[in-house]
Design goal:
Blueprint (H helix, E strand, L loop, with lengths): L1 H12 L4 H21 L6 H15 L3 H17 L4 H10 L2 H16 L6 H13 L4 H11 L6
Helix pairs in contact: 2-3, 2-4, 2-5, 2-6, 2-7, 3-4, 6-7, 6-8
Length: 151
């Protein structure tokens, strides 16, 4: 606990470059996406492939960069104590459309295996709440990701 606090204090004292800030934001985003694929305790190859595709297209990364970001995100996810540490960064830097795109990506990942588990649903709802999205936006994004589910 003290080490974590010291790390936070050192981060505040050290001014991050724009590239470092962008990387931290990308790391927060991928960590939330990883949270979704870890929710059902089974990570399928299709989920990883889709997540890497999302990273390449939405962040304009090469396949190698996407894989490296994914691996760093797994570590950040593993070390995280709550979703708040990621959503706090996103709230500070994302506009509404970017937040909606993130939640849409989360829903898409949850439907990759054609089975939305309750834990995936709970995580996405919690993230949407922490990102200050309206319930109607959450449902609209879910329906956009998979229009075959009942409202």
């Amino acid at each position: 606990m003290i080490a974590k606090l010291m790390q936070l204090l050192q981060l505040d004292c050290h001014t991050l470059s724009p590239a470092e800030k962008a990387h931290q934001l990308n790391l927060a985003t991928v960590s939330l996406l990883i949270e979704v694929i870890n929710a059902d305790d089974h990570i399928s190859p299709d989920e990883i492939t889709h997540l890497l595709d999302v990273l390449q297209t939405r962040f304009n990364l090469s396949a190698e960069q996407a894989k490296a970001l994914f691996e760093q995100g797994q570590q950040a996810h593993h070390n995280a104590t709550s979703l708040f540490e990621f959503t706090e960064q996103i709230n500070a830097h994302f506009n509404l459309e970017q937040k909606q795109t993130l939640v849409l990506s989360m829903w898409e990942l949850s439907f990759i295996d054609d089975n939305l588990c309750q834990y995936e649903d709970q995580i996405i709802r919690r993230v949407a709440d922490l990102l200050h999205l309206k319930h109607s936006e959450l449902i609209q994004l879910r329906n956009q990701a998979n229009p075959d589910i009942p409202g």
